[in-house]
Amino acid sequence: MNQGPPPSILVHDTFTASKRELELRDPGRCGVYCCGPTVYDLCHVGNARAALVPDVIVRFLRHQGLQVKYVRNITDIDDKIIARANADGVEAMAVAERFADEYHRDMATLGMLEPDVEPRVSSHLPEIVELIERLLARGGAYVAEGDVYFRVAAFAEYGKLGKRRPDDLLEGAGSRVEVDARKESPLDFALWKAAKPGEPAWDSPWGPGRPGWHIECSAMCSKHLGETFDIHCGGRDLIFPHHENEIAQSQGAYGPGTFALNWLHNGFIDFAGEKMSKSLGNFFTTREVLALHDPETVRYFLLTVHYRSGLNFEVRVDCPACGAPLDRDAQDQGRCAACGAEPGREALRARVRFPGLEEADDRLAYVHATLSGARRLLREAGAAAPAGPAGPGPLLAAFCEHMRNDFNTSGALGTLSRPLAEANTLLAATRGVDMAVRLQWLAGFLADMDQVAAILGCFGGDADGWLQRRRNRRAAQAGLDLGRVEALVADRQQARAVKDWARSDAIRDELAALGLVVKDGSTGTNWDFA
Ligand SMILES: [Zn+2]
Ligand SMILES: [Zn+2]
Predict the structure, then answer these.
(1) pTM for the predicted model, two decimal places
(2) Which of 179, 236, 246, 357 falls between 20 and 30 A from 446, CA-CA?
(3) By the 8 A CB rule, do 466 and 299 touch?
């Protein structure tokens, strides 16, 4: 959108362990690779964060005028997929197909951009075989009984990304019981695994088998982004060994200085400040969270924390029997201290609430109400409304300054507080501020917020519709009968039309007893939570 050279963007690069200018192979263009899911189950909140981080980075780089190619793979050949297929008594590819579809559904619900290319391992076997052959030809790999291993000793840089010394790694590996006699060194890792009975297999020069996990990403990066490209993303848990091995394979094949120029890693999601309790399970699926919260709230919540930081995902559970809040010990033991009940995992999970998301939901409601109010005022002004602003205003400038600083969404969201408060002041002001000045300011505010919405994938769309969906969801969660509420509101409107004030007041009291208020506005009567 901007003309001229894009302003500088700082990133924290894991390889150099420093914050520095985003390095681009070709100014104006940026290739982004993100390690996608292994599709053997529904995705969890951590997967959603790992997909959201590159999503917002890509949106922002495009906003800054860069031409971005975004590649996110799908790992559809893997031990976990085979294990799931055996457990379910179906083909491995059927498992992969099913959970790739489920993943796409979750990503679409969360408003994620579709990657420009979404390569799958199963359709990149020729590229993977070719890359392994290249490594073999250069002495970076060796064949052992139908397997092919990467020769770590041939790659002097090994351990630089993960900040590990090969000697220390060897010491650690040597202390483990199992040492595979086929390997030259315990550090060597599989590029190709010979087929075992009952496993899916593909032909190769070394016999039937399947690729190791790491080689797929190296092969797909070079195929879709070139031997050297700009940004490689992923969760912090992938730094070692996955990304370390990707570098070893790719630089082993294409030479020093190739592969990703910038390594960006996102932090973990911390459930309740530590791992989730035993009685609750290990994680929450995205589906479970989306059953309680609007997708935009989930996005917004995840963006309130800088991508490199750990994100505290607070979990609250009340006892299904007596309603007492279960503290951490009670959650661990699955036993309520107040009433002695021992609810099973399913019963406990059904009672889970996420206070952080509830807070985010309130904040998002405030933003949408502000946007709605500003749009309404401009709409009502009709011909008196000012023409759109000539260019981006101070709101967008302050927001983007934080985004250019290592995609600091947390700081960027913080800059919105004052303009939002200012907008509400102007919306509430009935005197003292010239109407033309108010309208002019609000038009600029809305124009900037439109761009913020495009960058974050939040705050866009129909604000009134969002607020109404939120109200209905809260009503359903509170066990209110929506039909009855609507009928009461309609009855009251009728009573008011015939000036039956006693009846109108009685209905208002009945709604108040349900925790609701009715609002009579210029566009009719509406209701909401008190
Ligand atoms: Zn990968
Ligand atoms: Zn209890």
Answers:
(1) 0.94
(2) 357
(3) no
